[in-house]
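Weekly puzzle thread! Below is a chain. First person to post its structure in token form gets bragging rights.
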Amino acid sequence: MKIIEKSIDELIPYENNARFNDEAVEFVANSIKEFGMKNPILVDKNMVIIAGHTRLKALKKLGWEKAPVIIAEDLDEEQVKALRLADNKAGEIAQWDEDLLAIEMQNIKNIDMDKFGFELQKMLDEAMAKDNVQERKLKKMELKAFEHYDYLVFVFDNQHDFVGMAQEFGLEKVDAGYTVRKLGIGRVLKGGELVKRLRDKNNNIE
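Winning reply:
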């Protein structure tokens, strides 16, 4: 499809738009300001918006006079209505892979992702609050006589160190079977193996 420029004043918001989008306008405006307008507004042959109501509001907020537009001339009226709803619904269904999201967020150092609605600090605070009040139900560990388990938790504040340790111990991604909405990845290692490897490395240095 051909992308053309149209005056913002020519674009007509759909009067029965069923999606509330005012809270997202600032974040979309920040995205456009940071990266440019990379996603054209989709309209029908009468310039009525099919997809892009939030983008239009964001452009107005930024003071733009023109917008990149795609005209869906091949769709009939019923298809336009269906696409308008389907486009919004698809965004609701999509979910984040929390592990991959954490990795991606850690790799972005110089761009403030809060500007786009991620609220990283709030996500971390909520995760810590849940840790303080939430108890996990785990299967009872079957212990043998005189068997005892202690543990240490190592926290990595950067992906490089974590990946290095994961490679050192041959760790692979584990499907926990449930969703944990936290920014971080957890693994459990046998303490004896860690002690052995540390001793071996110290002996090699000596």
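Puzzle host: Confirmed. Bonus trivia for everyone else. The chain has a mean pLDDT of 77.
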